[in-house]
Give the backbone structure.
Amino acid sequence: MITKYKTLIVLAAASLLVVLYGEYSNTSETNKAGIWKETELVKLHGDTLRCTIYLPAHAGTRVGYHYEVLTHFSKTHGMDLQYIPANDSLPVWELLENHKTDILAINIIRDSIPKSLTGKLFITPQITSMGEVWVMRKDKADWHLNLVHWLTLFKQSPGYARFRNRFLPASPERSPYDSLLMAQGSTLGWDWKLLRAVMYQESKYRMNAESGSRAIGLMQIKESTAADLSIPDLYNPEDNIRGAVTYFSFIKRNMHLAQVSEEEEINFILAAYNAGMSRIEKDRERAAQDGKDPNVWAQVSPYVPRQTQKYVEMIWYRYMGWASAS
């Protein structure tokens, strides 16, 4: 009887070992797959991850949310992030189809996948609750499972709630870039909230905003101006804000504002930022010829374009509202 029980115990133990070995093998294969995915990403070190964010204009700061999350992912894996805009000459789905971008952030409810790409794409779970996902080509994104895993961990990290609250929900009374504005405002000698008022007027805090005249980004800087001032990436929020402050400083140095009070100086700098420095200088000359004081904005403003008058007015209106509320 004892021998029989020993035999049963041995058989049970053997069966358990088989099960455990199977579990170990499965786990080992999973781990190996995970390590392989990480290895594939390590091979991308130093490469550039190209992204396109194609959301409607009212998405506002959600555009910046996608960009910043992708920035974190890129930095984590040793890659640079490059923003690739969609335009009329190269529609958004063609960017993926023609290998012009690596990741496309899109509202999958609003913009359905074309038949030509059916079965060729990997789609992440929803990034936001608005139906916004990231889409990648399967033949170019063999690391997509790592991306989803990283995103899950990122959203579970202790600082994620504070990070998310910078962008969502959107509000004119705060921007996701206030810390950058604070740093840059001090270099210019302006209250940083005045810079925020400029940003809201220019782009409504949308980092990929583009105008018909090809002004780009949060502070709507033209590519020609960026080239003159050596601004590296107009879609990058930090570069764009720093570039705008550099341009404000350039205007301040090159306009004849020595006899102008600080508030009047800001008026003329804002007007020149909107209409161009040479245009505002000519308007000041015209005002002087008519016996007006060229150093007083109220006497010069009737000579500048109505759009520019409204531009300066709205920036002050918004700034004064924020300043009085703080």
